[in-house]
Amino acid sequence: MGNVLSKRAVSIWRIYEAIRFIIFSFLYVIVSFFVPTWVVLMFVCLSIVDGMLFVFFVPRWKWERWWYMIRDQEIELEHGVWIRKRTLIPLRRVQHVDVKQGPLARKYKLASLYIYTAAMAHEIPFLDEQEAEKLRYYISSLVKEDEHDE
């Protein structure tokens, strides 16, 4: 099984980035009372560029570059906008698999799949709810088969 994330992930990432943009804009306003005018203008310009880039473009790029493949012996993850990260998780290292869903993901009927090994947790974010559950059971069954083969 291999796939990309749900396209609705773009909407959630846009909301996250918009919240970040609002928080930083608020901080820029506070800082503007203590710095010269030219610094305020620079903050405003940077804020506009930041907002345009991170709210409108980066979420789409993240979605286009997020990819996963589940094979009989391993799980491959690939993601990253500027720095690409490729991860191979051997199934024999998987300890358990969880599905998590925050309030915003629940609203969009999405969930994230977490794959735990002894070293760390790996996330496949924003899958359709049914797809996340299906993958959780599928990976669990592959792990059980791998345990029985040893």
User: CATH superfamily of the largest domain, called what?
Assistant: Pleckstrin-homology domain (PH domain)/Phosphotyrosine-binding domain (PTB)
- Helical content band: 40-55%
User: Judging by the overall fold, what is the CATH architecture of the largest domain?
Assistant: Roll
What is the count of β-strands?
7
For the sheet with most strands, the description reads: 4 strands, antiparallel
Mean residue pLDDT: 91
Structural class of the helices, strands and pairings? alpha+beta
Number of domains: 2
Spatial arrangement of strands, main beta sheet: 1-2-3-4
Order of helices and strands: EHHEEEEHEEH
CATH topology of the largest domain: PH-domain like
Low-confidence stretches: none
| Radius of gyration, whole Å | 20 Å
- Overall morphology: elongated
Number of helices: 4
CATH class call of the largest domain: Mainly Beta
The percent range for strand residues is 25-35%
N-to-C terminal Cα separation, in Å? 23 Å
